[in-house]
Amino acid sequence: MTTTVAQREFGLQACVQETFAGRSVRVVGREQLKIDVHRLQVEVDGAERSVVAKWSDPVVARRNWLVARRWLPVAGLEDHGPPLLAVVAEPTGEGAWHVYEGLRGHALSTEAPVKDDVEAAMEAIARVHTAFADHSLLPEFRLWGGDRGIHFYAANVRDAVVALSSLDRKRLGTDGSAARNALLQRMGDLKNEEAERAQVLAALGGSETLVHGDLWPTNVIALEDEGAVRVRLIDWDEAAAGPIGFDLSTLLIRFHSSHRPWILDIYRRAVDRFAGWELPNESELNLIFETAAYARLASLLVWSVGAAGEGESEWLRERLAEMVDWLDAIRPVLSSR
User: Fold this and answer.
1) pLDDT over 90 for what percent of the chain?
2) What would be the CATH architecture of the domain defined by 5-102?
3) What angle do CA 197, 199, 200 make, to 5 degrees?
């Protein structure tokens, strides 16, 4: 049974009431931020406050709960994660609402990075990475979030070949078939490179740790705190076990190439200070970052083919052509200085 829009709406209202159970509460304002993510202005016992309500499927809901209530707190890093107030499960068991305290902050700017914000962000990320390196909770990270190392690369490249091979070339047409063939060639090349990339990750990728998994600047919120800047990392839907390069490549690529070296230098100094880590040089990091980028695109390709279904040939043709361009556009994250 699939949850209807009306049922989801009822669940949203119910989760607010349950979050503030025993208190006088009413919703006085609402803004939809994304699908199934809402910023609510609520009046609680006469005082107005802001909360964010987010609906997730059961696995993602459990993963986010673990991040906020178990994993980060184990290392004393709960203030680095999302400020979770309550979790309210749907009666159907198809998902759950998470209610978070509204943050009075801003996401990292990529157009004009603010040094204090970036320093706070990279230090927070470094603390998480170093705290959970080779941690006893790694099996839990992998169980609930998967693996973002070489296995993620290998599995998605393999699955992409299978998905592309299953497509009906007649339905794709000439252009779609050309894009499919180009992608098959690229996935074949990536499969042939697996052993070499695995060797590089094993030698230079560092310890496995807890990775955010979707570390876009929009998921890094900077807040003013008594004249200083602190950071909370939000939206841990893709949290997993993996190498630090997965998170770093995701974040750095969003900034202009001229900013990436000094941003990375902040992280480099932080992990050295926290754990005595020495990061690989730029050319070695570029290989690690490139592997992560190809793995992410292969994963997107797999899920795109699956989401398109039998009756979405036009949409799929466009996506396949985009994927060819995106793969061709991958460049070294770091340039020589």
Assistant:
1) 77
2) 2-Layer Sandwich (3.30)
3) 65
